[in-house]
Predict the structure.
Amino acid sequence: MPQSLFIDIKNLSVGYTSRSGKTIPVLRDVNLSITRGDSIGLVGESGSGKSTLALAAMGYFKRGLHVISGQVQFDGIDMLNIERNALQRLRGGRLALIPQNSGQSLTPNLRIGQQIIEALRLHSDLPATGFDAGVIDLLSQVRLPDPIGLTDRYPHELSGGQQQRVAIAMALASDPEALLLDEPTTGLDVTTQAHIMELLRDLAKDRNLAMLYVSHDLGAIARVCNKVMVMYAGETVLTGSAKQVLLSPRHPYAHGLLASIPRLNEASLPQALDGRPPMPSETITGCAFADRCKLADQTCHSSPPPLNHLETGEAVRCFHHDQIGQLNRKPEKSARSNPVVADKDIALSLANLAVSYSRPGLLSKLFTPQDTPPSTVDRITIDIKKGETLGLVGESGSGKSTILKTIAGMVPAQSGNIILNQTEPLDTMVEKRPAAYLRQVQIIFQNPDDSLNPRHTVAQILAQPLRLYYGLSGTPLRDRSIAILEQVRLGEHYLERLPSQLSGGEKQRVAIARAFAADPEIILCDEVTSALDVSVQAAVLDLLDVLKRQDGTTYIFVSHDLAVVKAISDRVAVLYQGRICEIGPVAAVYSAPFHPYTDALLGAVLEPDPDVAPRLTADDAVELSPPKTGCPFQRRCPRKLGSICETNIPTAQEIAPGHIIHCHIPQVDL
Amino acid sequence: MTVSSTSHQQEQGRFITVMKDILARPSGRIGLTLVLFHILLALLSPLIAPYDFKLQNSSLMLSPPSSEHWLGADHLGRDILSRTLMGGREALLVTGIATPLAVIWGGFIGILFGLVGGRVDEVLMRVVDAFLSLPWILKMLVLIVTFGTGIGVLIPTLTFFYGIPVIRVARAATHDIIARDFVWAAKARGHSRISIIWRELLPNVLDTLMVEGAMRWSWMLLAFSSLSFLGFGVSPPTPDWGLMISDARGFMSFAPWGVIAPVIGLSSLIIGINLSADALAKALGIDRAQKAPM
């Protein structure tokens, strides 16, 4: 097959008209061409225009957006001036899209089989008699187990990963020549994500697809793409092969972005990329990145840099791309030295904590008392020392957030104790806890959009804990609020702003400030960085680390991201189905010997390095409830010994001081 | 400067931004203009109406529009222009009082149900549903027939019946808000229940209630006019659009002006209110479909 341009976007500018009547560009003069067999990764922070560009390749623009100039061609067809019906045949036909949240793009009241048949009927040449076989064939191609049984299921009966596979199967129904993927694995667990990436990679190769992959996740891009295009503020700033861009980026922004990703093989915190990207409505005179760039000089602020095509095949929009070496990949920042906590007092003890969400009705209590489902969270015994950071990792459903909510008193414990400062056990419900204890435990939530009241100003948000716990008002309140804001590196002028006037990172800083305003001893962090861009995530992690050093606060840090947990924690507990699999110092948990589940998790992490392939040990089946007896991981464990794993709860094996693995496999074999 | 004074300024600032946003939309400009026009008319119409609305002139019976009587005369020979100009006064007065009352009581009960939650809430809401399933006009007629017509009965009746759908809306909004993390955060900090309701819940529910109130207003106007049309609203000879439409209906084939004039009066007011409510919803960010791109 000749390597002709398949998707060809030339000098495309897209914008919207603001209320004042000005045209505000969100894409500026972008070129993108994809040949068959190519897969291009489109990278950038939120708001960089990457999704807009991907959808433009289908000739689709979100409501309010319009083309300012440029053209979009698909296999020689002008997508911007095509007849409506022809466009409809192309979309979902030769050109398929796999959206971010396919759980939402599947019709909830149609069985899986029917939905795929619809895709086949509309977009394939198969005769009606061949539909059933076609469905089975597609479902097996996306490696779903038991495809025949699956056709009769409804979308809600499938896990997120399975739904995503069904969406991929539907996209493949038309035998497309090009595939657009918009963050297809965001929100999925690491093991699921890794499996789907492998599937996409193989599909692209087998079918010689032209693929455009939009993601903020450089690890995923590294796995499936051979070329990468980095976008910033609606412009292309760097293109090149995956290896060139991910291993030796020639643009300061790409460089900063890569440095801000926490990695498993590094013990230190990632480097934050300061500042924020310009809003589309801001006028940019020079380079859009100049304000955040360490290499920027006078020229960068005054005139926009052109896209330079280098002999090596890259294209870079920077005046100083030859000086990129000056941006030391790993600057003076030394490995994070963990504070010595060994001799400190215990701040919080969880003693045999169990939580159950099921509330059996009266009838089932009377007639089938033995049928009560196993507790969601069980046998959690952890002592956390003052000043220590304990990481809790696990996939969704591992009970990590439940444990946090139980500590905070929002979810009642079924049994077990929560003991603060080695005193008597706390009441399980927050309403009954003494006020003095409430101040000592504060929580920071995942999504600041949800945890900050949209109708309160920053001043009002910070005033709440300060009034409640310290009775401050008037000038002392204001002074203290300013002092706290400065601690989280926000200035006094933020006081009168509403959350909607802040960026994602700023909002999370305000949420952190609110938690620290109480001057607590323990802060519970529930996925605090997962709603943020990587560069912002690095800054927030850094801030949490600095604040902890100042105040000696104890953190319990919940995350699904193993690299993030590694970067910030002193000790890590790996959870599966609400039970601890492995717990110990960070260095010990992240290196052999492993619990088989830890091994599966670590193996599935996608590194932003095209040369590193994940090791997939366990399959990605999702379990809805823990097994009644034996090891929680028994059904997915690749190293299951036999019936002992199904009947006996694994004993705690102390591998090294403080490093405990709950597994039946003898220590020497782990 | 204390925080409470800054919050006051914030509220003022928000009022101004919301007003600006409403006026920046064509729907808001047209809607507010219509509503304002009708309110002014209701206040000033006794002064500007060219004739006495009660004055009957048998020689003018059903006469078409002329230079003296711009919109003609009705079956009793009364000037239709004067009656149309004044025909909204009663309706605006009654609904203008009943709407805020309905939103207040419905909102209060709805928030209460939402906060109580659980089985009590479920059972009570089914009662509300059952109530809503009956045609409203029947329920209202029963009350009016029992207690008689007149403002003293109409205002409480409309307040009562139009508060009930507000319960649903307020309850749903309350459920939405109390599940959000900022309410959890306040609970975890140990704020009192009152403080959580006052600071966290109410400011967020009020936006929804304001839009709901605007929508209820136009529904209530329609209900009031329907009652007048059926003869249970305003009593003659007070001019009222509903009543005028009812009176002129029989002569529609040869004297359509008697129906057209009050219909334009009523519909322009209702359209005005609906457009304003629409713009208000968008300005408050309740309408999600219309958010700016990206």
